[in-house]
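Sanity check. The docking grid for adenine depends on where the pocket ends up, so I'm generating a full predicted complex first rather than guessing from homology. Inputs follow.
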Amino acid sequence: MREGFVKALLEWYYSHKRDLPWRHTSDPYKIWISEIMLQQTRVQAVIQYYLAFTRELPDIRSLASCEEQKLLKLWEGLGYYNRARNLQKAACEIENRFGGHFPERIEDIRSLPGIGRYTAGAVGSIAFGLPEPAVDGNVLRVWARLTSYEENILTEKAKSAAESFVKNLLDNTSPDGCAFKPGNLNQALIELGAVVCLPAGEPKCEECPLSSVCLGYKHGTWEKLPLKIKKNSRRIEELTVLIVRCGNKTAILKRSSGGLLKGLYGFPTVEGHVSAEEAVAFVSAKGYDALHVRPLKSAVHIFSHIEWHMTGYEIRVSDFSSDGGPWHFAGFEELQNETPVASAFAPYTETINLMLGKRGKRTSL
Ligand code: ADE
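Predicted complex below; grid placement will be based on this.
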């Protein structure tokens, strides 16, 4: 079964693979450049960058000695400029540690800056025939559907399982019959993911050389696979909330039209977690005379893409002008019944209720 599987996959690859420039070379340097570029950009867009880069910097030495400005220009438009810097750092290390020859042992390849498990496996297998898996997003998807893996694929556990699956194929396939090469097996899986086992829209199962052994196809689970649950990618914003009070009134302001919670009311805030002195200075700069400051509890509010991590102070001021000033001073009734104070501020709205000894309903949206 395993032999048949690999044979079917490789035969499909040999007759369907796209003609891509990095598939015409066995130079590890060029294969490495292509693999780094392919991690961030579509294949069609990479072709031009790859050709220009390898024309201008055809080998490790030229990359190692390239001026940063020129390097970044060649990378311009690809984004993730640190990847270009890491390429150069790695080229310098190859010069210093390996006498300018791209290392052939997987541990040495992996020890280079910017080279992780995927890149090491891809370069090692394609350039040197090492039986090392190269599991990128394409391969992970193919594997999840093939094996009907119904757990989250964005985990170390899933990646390791996919790598073991591919490693097993690499270690147990005899070369006869299907012109077996580790690099071709890895690229065949990548290719299958890119052009048949598609990430968006329906996979082309009728064209797939593996459909007869695909559990996702057999059980009809391919539609909901792979399962991807992203880790919390919310941005954390720290801010200090100011409960500025004068008598029984509290300062509020309408939030600016461009930002988060636009049009709602909130309490004045300062970016970052500031000290009591800085909070008082902020209030004084707005024209209010601070009499007393007291720290309040900290709180967290979670929006879909942002988390507010808040600290707060109650600051008593001596006076406010009712017909001006940057802030509006609202009485309890107004806060309670009229003004839409964003629920992100609820922990501090409750503070006001407590200060007034009332248990009023939430004044939030
Ligand atoms: N994506 C990552 N590596 C690739 C390769 N060698 N060929 C095509 N697409 C790829």
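Relevant for the grid: The CA atoms of residues 205 and 211 lie 6 Å apart.
Also worth noting: Residues 20, 35, 38, 43, 122, 136, 187, 190, 194 surround adenine (CB under 6 Å).
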